[in-house]
Protein backbone atom coordinates (compact mmCIF):
# COMPACT_ATOMS: atom_id res chain seq x y z
CA UNK A 1 0.00 0.00 0.00
CA UNK A 2 1.42 3.43 -0.88
CA UNK A 3 1.59 5.85 2.07
CA UNK A 4 0.07 9.34 1.99
CA UNK A 5 2.57 12.10 1.22
CA UNK A 6 3.33 15.33 3.08
CA UNK A 7 5.80 18.12 2.36
CA UNK A 8 7.92 19.58 5.15
CA UNK A 9 9.42 23.01 4.46
CA UNK A 10 11.91 23.45 7.30
CA UNK A 11 15.47 23.84 8.50
CA UNK A 12 18.06 21.08 8.80
CA UNK A 13 19.17 20.22 12.37
CA UNK A 14 22.44 18.28 12.10
CA UNK A 15 21.76 16.70 15.52
CA UNK A 16 18.52 15.19 14.12
CA UNK A 17 16.34 16.19 17.08
CA UNK A 18 14.41 18.99 15.35
CA UNK A 19 13.80 20.39 11.87
CA UNK A 20 13.45 18.25 8.76
CA UNK A 21 15.25 15.31 10.36
CA UNK A 22 12.57 15.17 13.10
CA UNK A 23 9.84 15.60 10.47
CA UNK A 24 11.14 12.64 8.45
CA UNK A 25 11.32 10.39 11.53
CA UNK A 26 7.83 11.37 12.70
CA UNK A 27 6.21 10.95 9.28
CA UNK A 28 7.87 7.55 8.84
CA UNK A 29 6.69 6.40 12.29
CA UNK A 30 3.13 7.45 11.37
CA UNK A 31 3.12 5.62 8.03
CA UNK A 32 3.54 8.75 5.90
CA UNK A 33 6.14 9.62 3.24
CA UNK A 34 7.59 13.10 3.82
CA UNK A 35 9.16 15.20 1.09
CA UNK A 36 11.50 17.94 2.30
CA UNK A 37 12.25 21.47 1.11
CA UNK A 38 15.28 22.65 3.10
CA UNK A 39 15.21 26.34 4.08
CA UNK A 40 18.37 26.62 6.21
CA UNK A 41 21.25 24.50 7.34
CA UNK A 42 21.55 24.87 11.12
CA UNK A 43 24.69 23.72 12.85
CA UNK A 44 23.33 22.82 16.28
CA UNK A 45 22.95 20.27 19.06
CA UNK A 46 20.24 20.34 21.75
CA UNK A 47 20.71 23.61 23.65
CA UNK A 48 23.38 25.11 21.39
CA UNK A 49 22.86 26.76 17.99
CA UNK A 50 26.31 27.37 16.52
CA UNK A 51 25.60 28.68 12.98
CA UNK A 52 22.76 29.21 10.50
CA UNK A 53 23.14 29.34 6.73
CA UNK A 54 19.94 30.20 4.82
CA UNK A 55 19.36 28.55 1.43
CA UNK A 56 18.73 30.89 -1.53
CA UNK A 57 14.97 31.65 -1.58
CA UNK A 58 14.75 30.66 -5.28
CA UNK A 59 16.20 27.24 -4.45
CA UNK A 60 13.77 26.80 -1.54
CA UNK A 61 10.86 27.70 -3.83
CA UNK A 62 12.12 25.33 -6.51
CA UNK A 63 12.20 22.41 -4.04
CA UNK A 64 8.60 23.22 -3.07
CA UNK A 65 7.50 23.58 -6.69
CA UNK A 66 9.08 20.36 -7.96
CA UNK A 67 7.72 18.35 -5.02
CA UNK A 68 4.17 19.73 -5.43
CA UNK A 69 4.29 19.20 -9.21
CA UNK A 70 5.43 15.59 -8.94
CA UNK A 71 3.86 13.96 -5.86
CA UNK A 72 0.26 13.66 -4.64
CA UNK A 73 0.95 15.81 -1.57
CA UNK A 74 -1.93 15.69 0.94
CA UNK A 75 -0.73 18.24 3.52
CA UNK A 76 2.15 20.68 4.05
CA UNK A 77 4.00 21.63 7.22
CA UNK A 78 6.23 24.69 7.52
CA UNK A 79 8.87 25.06 10.22
CA UNK A 80 11.87 27.38 10.17
CA UNK A 81 11.11 29.75 7.26
CA UNK A 82 13.71 32.14 8.72
CA UNK A 83 13.64 35.20 6.40
CA UNK A 84 11.04 37.39 4.67
CA UNK A 85 12.57 36.33 1.34
CA UNK A 86 12.03 32.61 2.06
CA UNK A 87 8.48 33.27 3.31
CA UNK A 88 7.77 35.34 0.19
CA UNK A 89 9.20 32.69 -2.15
CA UNK A 90 7.12 29.84 -0.68
CA UNK A 91 3.80 31.59 -0.05
CA UNK A 92 2.47 31.86 -3.65
CA UNK A 93 3.17 28.14 -4.26
CA UNK A 94 1.38 27.18 -1.05
CA UNK A 95 -1.55 29.48 -1.81
CA UNK A 96 -1.91 28.01 -5.30
CA UNK A 97 -1.75 24.42 -3.96
CA UNK A 98 -4.79 24.97 -1.72
CA UNK A 99 -3.44 22.18 0.55
CA UNK A 100 -4.01 21.93 4.31
CA UNK A 101 -1.15 23.93 5.84
CA UNK A 102 0.22 23.40 9.35
CA UNK A 103 2.46 26.32 10.37
CA UNK A 104 4.91 26.05 13.26
CA UNK A 105 5.99 29.71 13.65
CA UNK A 106 9.53 28.81 14.69
CA UNK A 107 11.01 31.97 16.21
CA UNK A 108 13.45 31.22 19.00
CA UNK A 109 15.22 27.96 19.95
CA UNK A 110 14.80 26.64 23.49
CA UNK A 111 18.45 27.63 23.97
CA UNK A 112 17.41 31.27 23.32
CA UNK A 113 18.93 31.64 19.84
CA UNK A 114 16.78 33.37 17.20
CA UNK A 115 15.66 31.00 14.44
CA UNK A 116 13.77 33.71 12.52
CA UNK A 117 14.77 37.20 11.43
CA UNK A 118 12.57 39.82 13.11
CA UNK A 119 11.66 41.12 9.62
CA UNK A 120 10.08 37.75 8.72
CA UNK A 121 7.16 38.31 11.11
CA UNK A 122 5.47 40.89 8.86
CA UNK A 123 5.92 38.53 5.88
CA UNK A 124 4.27 35.71 7.89
CA UNK A 125 1.35 37.99 8.69
CA UNK A 126 0.78 39.14 5.13
CA UNK A 127 1.65 35.96 3.17
CA UNK A 128 1.42 32.80 5.28
CA UNK A 129 -1.16 33.26 8.03
CA UNK A 130 -4.04 34.07 5.62
CA UNK A 131 -3.57 30.63 3.99
CA UNK A 132 -2.83 28.70 7.20
CA UNK A 133 -5.08 25.83 8.29
CA UNK A 134 -3.48 25.44 11.74
CA UNK A 135 -0.94 27.65 13.50
CA UNK A 136 0.96 26.02 16.41
CA UNK A 137 2.61 28.74 18.56
CA UNK A 138 4.13 28.19 21.98
CA UNK A 139 3.45 30.83 24.66
CA UNK A 140 6.37 33.06 23.59
CA UNK A 141 5.32 32.96 19.93
CA UNK A 142 1.69 33.63 20.91
CA UNK A 143 2.71 36.69 22.91
CA UNK A 144 4.91 37.94 20.06
CA UNK A 145 2.20 37.48 17.40
CA UNK A 146 -0.44 39.11 19.60
CA UNK A 147 1.86 41.85 20.84
CA UNK A 148 0.91 41.10 24.46
CA UNK A 149 2.85 40.45 27.66
CA UNK A 150 4.23 37.11 28.83
CA UNK A 151 1.67 34.30 29.13
CA UNK A 152 2.06 32.54 32.46
CA UNK A 153 -1.26 30.81 33.23
CA UNK A 154 -3.57 28.32 31.49
CA UNK A 155 -6.42 30.87 31.62
CA UNK A 156 -4.27 33.46 29.84
CA UNK A 157 -3.16 30.83 27.29
CA UNK A 158 -6.80 30.12 26.50
CA UNK A 159 -7.63 33.81 26.01
CA UNK A 160 -4.55 34.40 23.85
CA UNK A 161 -5.21 31.32 21.68
CA UNK A 162 -8.76 32.57 21.01
CA UNK A 163 -7.53 36.08 20.32
CA UNK A 164 -4.97 34.84 17.77
CA UNK A 165 -7.60 32.62 16.11
CA UNK A 166 -9.82 35.71 15.78
CA UNK A 167 -6.95 37.87 14.54
CA UNK A 168 -5.86 35.55 11.71
CA UNK A 169 -9.03 33.54 11.02
CA UNK A 170 -7.20 30.19 11.16
CA UNK A 171 -7.25 27.39 13.73
CA UNK A 172 -4.68 27.95 16.49
CA UNK A 173 -3.11 25.36 18.78
CA UNK A 174 -1.71 27.27 21.78
CA UNK A 175 1.03 25.08 23.28
CA UNK A 176 1.44 25.55 27.03
CA UNK A 177 4.08 22.89 27.64
CA UNK A 178 6.27 25.37 29.52
CA UNK A 179 3.57 26.77 31.85
CA UNK A 180 3.77 24.59 34.98
CA UNK A 181 4.21 20.95 35.95
CA UNK A 182 1.12 20.18 33.81
CA UNK A 183 1.11 20.60 30.01
CA UNK A 184 -1.89 22.58 28.74
CA UNK A 185 -2.69 22.67 25.04
CA UNK A 186 -5.64 24.57 23.61
CA UNK A 187 -7.10 24.31 20.13
CA UNK A 188 -9.35 27.16 18.97
CA UNK A 189 -11.22 26.73 15.68
CA UNK A 190 -12.47 29.70 13.61
CA UNK A 191 -16.07 28.48 14.15
CA UNK A 192 -15.67 29.15 17.89
CA UNK A 193 -15.13 25.54 19.04
CA UNK A 194 -12.43 24.87 21.64
CA UNK A 195 -10.63 21.66 22.60
CA UNK A 196 -8.32 21.35 25.59
CA UNK A 197 -5.81 18.76 26.68
CA UNK A 198 -3.83 18.56 29.91
CA UNK A 199 -1.29 15.96 30.89
CA UNK A 200 1.53 15.52 33.36
CA UNK A 201 4.83 16.92 32.22
CA UNK A 202 7.67 14.45 31.78
CA UNK A 203 10.39 16.36 33.59
CA UNK A 204 14.14 16.11 33.29
CA UNK A 205 14.15 15.42 29.53
CA UNK A 206 15.34 17.86 26.85
CA UNK A 207 12.34 18.87 24.74
CA UNK A 208 14.42 19.96 21.75
CA UNK A 209 12.37 19.33 18.63
CA UNK A 210 8.97 18.70 20.25
CA UNK A 211 7.37 21.61 18.33
CA UNK A 212 8.70 20.31 15.00
CA UNK A 213 7.61 16.76 15.82
CA UNK A 214 4.13 17.89 16.85
CA UNK A 215 3.45 19.91 13.71
CA UNK A 216 4.71 17.16 11.39
CA UNK A 217 2.64 14.58 13.32
CA UNK A 218 -0.46 16.75 12.82
CA UNK A 219 0.29 17.15 9.08
CA UNK A 220 0.85 13.38 8.80
CA UNK A 221 -2.45 12.56 10.53
CA UNK A 222 -4.30 15.11 8.36
CA UNK A 223 -2.77 13.33 5.35
CA UNK A 224 -4.26 10.07 6.70
CA UNK A 225 -7.66 11.82 6.57
CA UNK A 226 -8.26 12.57 10.28
CA UNK A 227 -10.33 15.66 11.06
CA UNK A 228 -8.27 18.48 12.67
CA UNK A 229 -9.23 17.97 16.37
CA UNK A 230 -8.56 14.20 16.14
CA UNK A 231 -5.27 14.81 14.30
CA UNK A 232 -4.15 17.24 17.03
CA UNK A 233 -5.23 14.91 19.83
CA UNK A 234 -3.41 11.87 18.40
CA UNK A 235 -0.35 13.98 17.56
CA UNK A 236 -0.14 15.23 21.19
CA UNK A 237 -0.27 11.59 22.38
CA UNK A 238 2.39 10.63 19.85
CA UNK A 239 4.78 13.39 20.97
CA UNK A 240 4.22 12.59 24.67
CA UNK A 241 5.22 8.98 23.90
CA UNK A 242 8.28 10.16 21.94
CA UNK A 243 9.41 12.24 24.95
CA UNK A 244 8.80 9.33 27.36
CA UNK A 245 10.78 6.96 25.10
CA UNK A 246 13.67 9.44 24.51
CA UNK A 247 17.22 8.30 23.84
CA UNK A 248 19.88 9.41 26.33
CA UNK A 249 23.60 9.15 25.74
CA UNK A 250 26.30 9.87 28.30
CA UNK A 251 29.21 11.49 26.52
CA UNK A 252 32.17 13.47 27.86
CA UNK A 253 30.56 13.73 31.28
CA UNK A 254 27.26 15.12 29.96
CA UNK A 255 23.87 13.56 29.27
CA UNK A 256 22.41 14.23 25.83
CA UNK A 257 18.73 13.56 25.07
CA UNK A 258 16.98 13.19 21.75
CA UNK A 259 13.28 12.35 21.26
CA UNK A 260 12.61 8.83 20.07
N1 LIG B 1 16.39 23.80 14.85
C1 LIG B 1 15.62 23.74 13.78
C2 LIG B 1 16.23 23.49 12.44
C3 LIG B 1 14.23 23.86 13.92
O1 LIG B 1 13.45 23.80 12.84
C4 LIG B 1 13.67 24.04 15.19
C5 LIG B 1 12.24 24.13 15.30
O2 LIG B 1 11.61 24.59 16.20
C6 LIG B 1 14.50 24.12 16.29
C7 LIG B 1 15.86 24.00 16.09
C8 LIG B 1 13.93 24.36 17.64
O3 LIG B 1 14.65 23.72 18.58
P1 LIG B 1 14.12 23.70 20.08
O4 LIG B 1 13.06 22.66 20.12
O5 LIG B 1 15.34 23.37 20.83
O6 LIG B 1 13.56 25.04 20.37
UniProtKB/TrEMBL annotation:
Gene3D superfamilies: 3.40.1190.20. GO terms for biological process: thiamine biosynthetic process. Pathway: Cofactor biosynthesis; thiamine diphosphate biosynthesis. GO terms for molecular function: hydroxymethylpyrimidine kinase activity; phosphomethylpyrimidine kinase activity. It holds the Pfam family Phos_pyr_kin. CDD domains: HMPP_kinase (cd01169). It is an enzyme of class 2 (transferase). Keywords: Kinase, Transferase. GO terms for cellular component: cytosol. The keyword Membrane does not apply. SUPFAM superfamilies: Ribokinase-like (SSF53613). NCBIfam families: HMP-P_kinase. This is hydroxymethylpyrimidine kinase.
